[in-house]
Specification:
With 283 residues, this protein is α+β, with helices and mostly antiparallel strands. It is built from nine helices and ten strands. An eight-stranded mixed sheet has the order 1-4-5-6-7-10-9-8, with helices on both faces. The mean pLDDT is 90.
Length: 283
């Protein structure tokens, strides 16, 4: 791994910020997401439902966004949701040390996500049925904050054949970027979910589509074979699912399968880099 001096590191940070500003400027010059969708015959029916969102007050959102970059904190929140009516520290210590979990509980209490009771802790907002909407919110924020992109989450369309939620849709340099966001581990993913994702990709025709799983487990063991099986059902000569690196895969440089290993932000960056490198212009 290269070692950077302070000046070089500052230059890299400055360069990244400049790229983000340029992308924001480009996005202002290109049609909005609603316009890009209408050109494809799509009109948003519902978006960003607040019911299951686990968010703190606005004053804590910036720090909360940074905390959600930590895989262990996201796993902690899933356990909190699982035990939302009552939990002790032992109930939410599966994925981090006791000391780290205590810090997470202290932080979540400070920002109002959980409340301390005489018998333990409970979630302040109940019921929350799933971590999924909060994860979708976070991914949309990644596009806004890190890539200067317009993004919406929890999108529903009225379509005659293809239904379901489009978890995150972003406008990336004037084109559509669609992500299916899974907060469940691979063992809880079924063939029907892969089929539904590919149906939505076919219907929406985004420039880039990503099947993202918030896990650090291997994608090659179950998820990739499920994609290969579904592609064989759809095409006489199915496209290959090829490895980019580690647990990141692509199908025809348009559909990508990624997990959270290393970081969500870095893996999305790798997808966009791969897309550009193959010579496909997004404009």
């Amino acid at each position: 791994m290269p070692i950077f001096d302070d000046k070089t590191f500052e230059e890299l940070v400055s360069l990244r910020e400049e790229v983000r500003r340029l992308r924001q400027s480009l996005n202002r010059l290109t049609p909005a997401i609603d316009v890009l969708l209408r050109r494809r015959g799509f009109r948003i029916y519902k978006r960003e439902p607040p019911e299951d969102l686990l968010l703190p007050p606005e004053e804590y959102r910036e720090e909360y966004y940074r905390m959600l970059q930590k895989y262990s904190f996201r796993l902690f929140l899933r356990d909190v949701i699982k035990h939302q009516d009552f939990f002790a520290i032992d109930n939410v210590t599966r994925y981090a040390t006791t000391d780290v979990t205590r810090e997470y509980i202290k932080y979540a209490t400070k920002i109002g996500l959980i409340e301390k009771k005489s018998y333990g802790y409970e979630l302040s907002k109940r019921p929350i049925t799933s971590f999924g909407p909060t994860l979708e919110w976070y991914i949309a924020e990644v596009f806004k904050r890190e890539f200067g992109s317009e993004a919406v989450w929890g999108v529903k369309f009225k379509r005659p054949k293809v239904g379901g939620d489009y978890d995150v849709i972003a406008k990336f340099d004037g084109s559509l970027f669609y992500l299916e966001v899974k907060s469940s581990p691979p063992k809880q993913i079924y063939d029907s979910e892969i089929a539904a994702f590919l149906d939505r990709v076919s219907d929406l025709s985004p420039e880039i589509a990503v099947f993202f799983m918030d896990t650090e487990l291997r994608m090659k063991d179950k998820i990739v074979p499920m994609f290969e099986s579904e592609l064989k059902k759809r095409f006489p000569d199915p496209p290959e699912v090829t490895r980019i690196e580690r647990e990141l895969f692509e199908i025809d440089n348009r559909i990508f399968i990624i997990n959270a290993k290393e970081s969500i932000i870095r893996n999305i960056e790798k997808v966009t880099y791969r897309f550009y490198k193959q010579g496909t212009s997004i404009n």
